[in-house]
Amino acid sequence: MKTQIKIEDSLKKLESIVAQIESGETGLEESLEQFKAGLLLAQKIKSRLNTIEKEVETINQEFGDSA
């Protein structure tokens, strides 16, 4: 079974990547690699959030949307 990403951990990592890029302390090539990594991470976070949203919708349907 594939391990699911923890959104909070992923967001912290993404924030770290952004802060490092914004600091200007890294070279262009390294910043580009970090940017790519950040985009990939953001994509994974979005996918996980979509999955969670579908799970919540399913639970609401199962319980008659009584929330």
Protein architecture, described:
With 67 residues, the chain is mainly alpha-helical. The chain has one domain (7-62). Helices cover 78% and strands 0% of the residues. It has 2 helices and no strands. Helix 1 (7-23) packs antiparallel against helix 2. The longest helix is centred in the last third of the chain and has 35 residues, at 28-62. The protein is rod-shaped. The model has no long low-confidence stretch (mean pLDDT 90).
Q: What Rg, in angstroms, do the CA atoms define? A: 17 Å
How many strand units?
0
Q: Poorly predicted ranges (pLDDT <50, ≥5 residues)?
A: none
> For the terminal residues, how far apart are their CA atoms?
31 Å
Shape category: rod-shaped
What class would the helix/strand composition place it in? Answer: mainly alpha
Number of helices: 2
The percent of residues in helical segments reads over 70%
Could you state the order of secondary-structure elements as H and E?
A: HH
The largest sheet is: none
Query: Which strand-content bin applies to the residues?
Result: under 5%
Number of domains: 1
Rounded mean pLDDT score: 90
